[in-house]
Amino acid sequence: MTDNSTPPDARADELAAQLISAKRSGGATSSERVRFLEAMTEAVPVGIVFADTTGRIVHGNSRAEEMVRHPVYFSDDVDSYGEWISFHPDGRQVQSHEYPLSRVIRDGESSASLDVHYQRGDGTRFWMRIIGRPVCDADGAMIGATVALIDIDHERQLQKSQDILIAELNHRVKNAFSVTMAIVRRSLKDSIVPQETMEAIASRLGAYSSVHSRLIGSDWGYATLRQIADDVLRPIGGDNISLDGPPVRMSSQMGISLSMALYELATNATKYGSLSVDGGTVAMHWEIDASQDPESVCIRWREEGGPPATKPHRKGFGTFITQRAVAAETKGDVSVSYNETGLEWALTMPRPQHRENII
Questions:
Q1: What SUPFAM superfamilies does the record tag this protein with (predicted)?
Q2: Does domain 39-151 have CATH number 3.30.450.20?
Q3: Rounded CA gap, 232 and 226, in Å?
C-alpha cells in the first residue's frame, strides 16, 4: 500500500533514486527491480528522463517518446545533449550546457527549468518545458538527476492568440482616443474656449491614453508604480523629475487614477511650481509601510528650487483630481503642504493586493 503521507515530490525522488541505484548495481535481482521501477514510470502523465552523475541518460519513459516522437537518446554525457535538438524563443539553438540536466549535474543547481521549442523526430516542433532536479541517495549524496518533460504547446498558442488580441485592443483604444480628441477640437474650434483650455484637454487625454496603453500591454491586470510615473512624468519634466522607490504593482483602476493625479501635479509644476524655472526639480519617492495592517504605500511629491507654493484661491479640476478623486479611487489619504521651498503632496493608500505585489 502506498504511503499517502509522503509528498508526491519525495515519492518521485525516491523512485528515481531506486531506479538509478538498481541500474548501477547490475545482476539478475537488480534487473527485475529495474523492470519494475521502469514500469512505475509509465504511470506518470509527463515525460521522465533519468541520468547518472556523469550525465549518461539511463532511462526515459514512453510518454517522453510520445512527446518528442523519437526514441529516447541515451546520451553518453552532458556534452552530448545537443543531439536533443531544440530552440530558444529567439530562435537560437539550445546548447548542451543549457539543458536542465546539465545544469543540475555539472553546475550543481538544486532546480533548473527551461522552455524550449523542440524539434520532434518527424520534423515538427512544439513547445516543451523541461524541469530538472538532482536525485540523491539515503545519505543525501547525489547519484544522478531527472527531468520532467511537459507539453506546453497549447499554453503557448493561447498566449500568442492573447497577445494578438491585446495588440488589436491597444490599437483600437488609441484610435478611440484620437477620434475623441478630433471631435473635441472640431467642436471647440469656433467657440470662445481659450486655446490653453483646448491644449489642456488634449494633454489630459494623452496622459489617459498613455496609461491605458501601459495597462493593456500588461494584460489589463496591473502596471508598476514606476512604469506609470515614468510614462506620465518623463514627457513633461524629463530628468528634472526623479523617481525612487521599491517595485509596487498597481491595479488598473488605481493606476489610471494615480496617473491622472501625477499629470496634474506635473503640469502645475511647469506652470507655477519648481519646473517653471531653471534648476527647479521634483523628487517623487514612495515606500512600503509593513507595520500597518494591511500594509500601506506612501507616495511623496516634493518640489524644490522654484517659487514658494501658494494655496489656490479656488478649487479647480486639478485640485479635485489630485485630492478627492485619487483618494477615493485608492481608498487613501492625501495631504498637501504649501511651503516656501515648494509644493509637497503625499498619498498614503493600502498596498494593492495581488498574488505577487513585487516584481
A1: PYP-like sensor domain (PAS domain)
A2: yes
A3: 10
